[in-house]
Write a structure and sequence with these properties.
The first copy, chain A, is an alpha+beta fold and 112 residues long. Chain A contains five helices and three strands. The first copy, chain A, binds a DNA duplex (30 and 30 nucleotides) through helix 4.
DNA sequence: TCGACCTGCAACTGAGAGGTTGCACATGGT
DNA sequence: ACCATGTGCAACCTCTCAGTTGCAGGTCGA
């Protein structure tokens, strides 16, 4: 306990948010969520950046645990792994609820 | 349709995720959620970066709409604005659900 | 076998993020 | 009035991120 904050878990959550904190990656995530599975070339079609840029973004997403890849013949298909999304949501929930409790305490302090 | 996605709303969501995608800022958000309201100096106490670094991070958080400040005598108190957190959660929900639908479609495609 | 297509690696660049230090300015307590 | 404390610039540095281009290596179909 005590020094529970700022642990490896928090770093993983920060990685997830970092991965989602880029417009290009965010649109990649949206496309993957909508299409199910796509190759880097398929994802770069319609994007305004090169295929290599998409590949780098996919690596970031995969390092964060948001995406997995699978070789399918001569192409590589990328798909979402929504589990980490749940971790991020859990973090947001915990901050929101502790914020609510803090509000209560503040209210009582002010009312003295 | 077509250009409906990747709009100003998506940019705002990316800004929120970007703001949360840094370990220092994430711990700031946690501290603010736990304490309710803190000054930059109060936040930098215990952190391993300088007060000025915290101030810059607070500016990023405020630009993303996650934090607001209020002058209180000679110090400036920062507090969470949990509304954007809800927006981020909503985004995660929508990606998750569209992902679930995509999984269904993929399953049916594979079963041909 | 040959050509088309997709991937993988490497080198390079520009811009911005994250951080620091130093100092000036305001404000509260004594 | 004085001093301590907290804030607000501004300049500066370093390192990483996002993106590009070029080319080599697999893999499928004809």
């Amino acid at each position: 306990m005590s020094r529970g904050t700022s642990s490896a878990r928090d770093r993983a959550v920060a990685d997830v948010f970092f991965a989602l904190g880029d417009g290009t990656r965010l649109s990649v995530v949206e496309k993957l969520g909508a299409a199910g599975a796509l190759s880097a070339t398929g994802l770069s079609g319609g994007a305004r950046v090169s295929r290599q840029a998409i590949v780098k973004h996919l690596r970031v997403l995969e390092d964060a645990g948001l995406v997995s890849h699978e070789r399918r013949g001569r192409e590589v298909l990328y798909a979402l792994v929504p589990q980490r999304l749940d971790d991020a949501r859990t973090f947001l929930d915990s901050v929101s609820s502790s914020w609510d409790r803090a509000l209560e305490r503040l209210r009582r302090l002010v009312e003295e």
